[in-house]
Amino acid sequence: MTERGTSSAVSFHDVECVFEHESGRTVRALDGVSFEVPAGQFVAIVGRSGHGKSTLLRCLAGLQATTAGDVRVGSRSIDRPGPDRSMVFQQDAVFPWMSVRDNVEFGLRAQGVAKEERHQTSTRWLEEVQLIDFADSWPRELSGGMRKRVALAAVLAMDSEVWLMDEPFGSLDYFTRRALHDLLLTLWDETNKTVFFVTHDIEEALILADRVLLVRDGRIVEDLPNTLPRPRDEEVRASRPSVDMTKTIVDHLGSDGSITLLDPTAGGD
Amino acid sequence: MTQIDQSGKRDSPLRPDVSRAAMSRGLLGRSRRRLVTTAIGVFGIAIALGLWELISVRSGVLPGPIDVFRHIQENLLSSPYLETRGMSSGTGYLGHLAVTTRSVVFGVGLGTIVGATLGLNSLRIPAINEVVGPITAALGSAPIFVAAPFFLIWFGIQPAAQIGIVAFYTFLLMYVFSRRAAQNVAARFVESAMTLGGSPRSIFRWIYLPASIPEFLGGFRIALAGAWGLAAIAELLGAQQGAGFLIKFFASAFRLDAMVAVVVLIGAVAIIFDAVVVLVARYLTRWVESGRRLGL
Amino acid sequence: MNRFRRYVAAHPVSMAVWVVLIAAWEVLGHITPESQLSTSPLVPPLEYVFTDAFKSLANNWPFDFWAPNPSKGGEITYWGAVLALGYHTMNTLYRLLFGLTSGIILGVGTGLAVAYWPWLRRVAWTPLNFLRMLPLLAAIPLFQFWLGANLRGSTVFIGFGIWVLLVVATINSVRNVPDLYIENSRMLGASPIRTYARVVIPAAMVELRTALLLAAGLSWSLTVGAEYIGLTSGLGNLLAVAVFFTNTGRMVIIAVLIAVLALLTFLVVDRLSRRLVRWMPKLAMDDVIRVAGAASIGGAKAVAIDE
After folding, report:
1. On chain B, which terminus has fewer CB atoms closer than 10 Å, C or N?
2. Mind spelling out the 3-state secondary structure of B123-135?
3. What's residue B28's pLDDT?
4. Which residue ranges of chain A lie beneath pLDDT 50?
């Protein structure tokens, strides 16, 4: 039975993850990944699609088996999923056959928590994400953004040591995303959990994270501290340090010639 | 057999349908819309009955709807015809229908419980499929006329044999449907449950079970619809009671109107049971997002 | 041969089950009592099936040429049995072909027509639903009295059963074609008819393929049923004769033959219908990725095809 403390450090040591196609082709999704994250840090994992950032997160979640190396949470080595590392998924994973409240209480119920306590916990977190009025609704009655908040509340209710987020806001519109960013940062501030946030959106990474890990071809190619002052409003994001960081990231991840910038001086056809 | 997917989907934009457009624009109220739909349904039945009458007049042998309905009316609750042949239990055709219904209810019940339990658990416990797979493959493709005689030879003509045949085929169908329903539960739900601390047992009870209900019910409707025919055949081949027995009896007496009457009655009972299942299914799947409600 | 060996190696429990089943059959065959009224044991042991039972099929060879005719006093031979099986199989296949093809053509055709006009579909829905619920097999005597116990009668019966199945399936398939395709086509300027013919129908073929496979299975059920009850030739008739004499050995032979033929029909329909959906991208299942040396995850193996 894993303990649920307030927050834990996470470390990867030479982690490898090799896939084998039926056709015999091998794919090195993760090729020797190592890093150490102290407890309470907000880490963004940025990379292009298909380069391994989701695989990295899934290895940490225990949903993906590693073929070499060691993944640790606190002092424990992990190899399977557990409530100490709850995850918010990219697609809509809120259970449609349960009410909003039952969704939030699912993990607690699985742990054997008594009904009264479950109710209290779910009420508290539903209020935090401002969905208490919809506690008894079906997920299908909620918008996409609201369902993400339900997923967040379910993770919060577990009081996990680490929060894992796999491009959770990708399918939402800009304004909803902004609101959820604010909510997420408020909750992180309150609870001080270790957060791993996967995204391909550089702006999102710069708004949210203390630290940005750049993933390319299954390796971490750069480890950038993000010292922009919070709150990171439009002014901060338009400032020189922010723009420089963005440029650095684009340089590291985009320089294989496949991004062509329009050249206004080229002859028109 | 598949059912026509009626609900949840608006008409395709291929041919903008004027009356439908009018309804959706709210020119007709909701209860009005129900009335129109029912009227169209009745109209459809009327045309079908008309076609039947035409065919029967042209054929000269096949009895028309009027004759058949009159026959049903005269014989449903108490049948003087059966009594004159010494075959009656005093309850007319209804008594025999009840026997068939009993076979179907028990057979489908038994087959579904065993089939669904094994099918849903076959993902968790691969050994189940290793054992049931060959049995399904070996016996599942046998048409009932092939399997039923074996049942009859081995188990005689007691009601247990008929229930057994229905249960057997229902088991085969529901095993496959349940297994497929469990397989089609999206991975993200199972993974989400795992990261929230769900044990295999709670994942089975709270994820696989409820998530497979819509597809399971679709399969159940199909199995139930087929069960009526199976029970009738089992009775036709060797029984002293039941709708199938009546058909065989009337065949030897060359009473076509009675045969048609019994077939129509079986169909009617099947529809009633199907309608009840649909009502229950609608309640159980009230959480499903509208769009494609699996024909329920 | 290699694929077979791999399959056997990968499924040891299944193979064991097959062996156990056959062994159990053999044991039962020897220990079950012989009924006074039957010409063979209740459960026929394998050696009986392959010798006496098989030979006795020669009784069903109704002609005087190529092999002795037992009904006229000729002797029972293996060759006679083979010929008898062949003759009756040809009869069955003949009927099956007529019924299945007419059912498919008329069923899909009617379905496509009904699906085109929404008002027509709404009117036809209730009666089609009722027809779907009728116990077809139990109505065989009815059909035979009405239409005659001959090729015409059996074709109409089988064709009707297939027709009901395919009309409903076609209507469903057409309705499930994504609106997106239709809107796209219309926006590009295609008329409703052209859209229907060039876009909707090909797209509907995907779902329809499953129904065609179901129809193949159903056609065997109907054909064997029709022959069992009223006809004087064909595998169903052979079966009925075997049941009449309670010759379980013959029943087993015919049952296995029907199963094999049904499987072949299934494969043929599958192959032919694949041409209809040549354009489809390979399903995700063909591209299964295995992680080398993976540990199993919590026991819950979720297999999902994300659409």
Report:
1. N
2. CCCHHHHHHHHHH
3. 56
4. 1-4, 260-264, 266-269
Provide the CATH number for the domain around residue C132. 1.10.3720.10
Alpha carbon C33 to chain centroid distance?
34
**Segments forming the whole domain that contains residue C272:** 47-296
CB pairs under 8 A between A and C: 38
Classify residue C23: in a domain, yes or no: no
* Residue A62 with chain C: CB contacts under 8 Å: 297
Domain count, chain C: 1
| Numbers of helices and strands, H then E, in chain A | 8, 10
Give ipTM to 2 decimals.
Answer: 0.86
pLDDT cut 90: percent of chain C above it = 15
Q: Is A111 at the interface with chain B, CB within 8 A? A: yes
Residue C191: inside a domain: yes
Q: Is residue C34 part of a domain?
A: no
Among A59, A67, A85, most C C-beta atoms within 10 A, so best to mutate, is A67
Choose among C148, C136, C108, C101: nearest CA to C224.
C136
Chain C nearest-CA residue for A23? C287
Contact A19 C289 (CB under 8 A): yes
Q: Taking CA atoms, what residue in A is nearest to B193?
A: A107
Chains in contact with C, counting 3 or more C-beta pairs less than 8 Å apart as contact = A, B
Q: Let me know how long chain A is.
A: 269
Q: What is the largest CA-CA distance in chain B?
A: 72
Token pair belonging to C222 = 């109907």
- B167 pLDDT higher than 90: yes
CB B220 within 8 A of CB B285: no
Q: Is residue C215 part of a domain?
A: yes
Q: Tens digits of per-residue pLDDT, C110-137? A: 999 999 988 888 889 889 988 888 888 8
Task: Find residues 129-158 of chain B whose CB sits inside 8 Å of chain C.
Answer: 130-131, 133-135, 138, 141-147, 149-150, 153-154
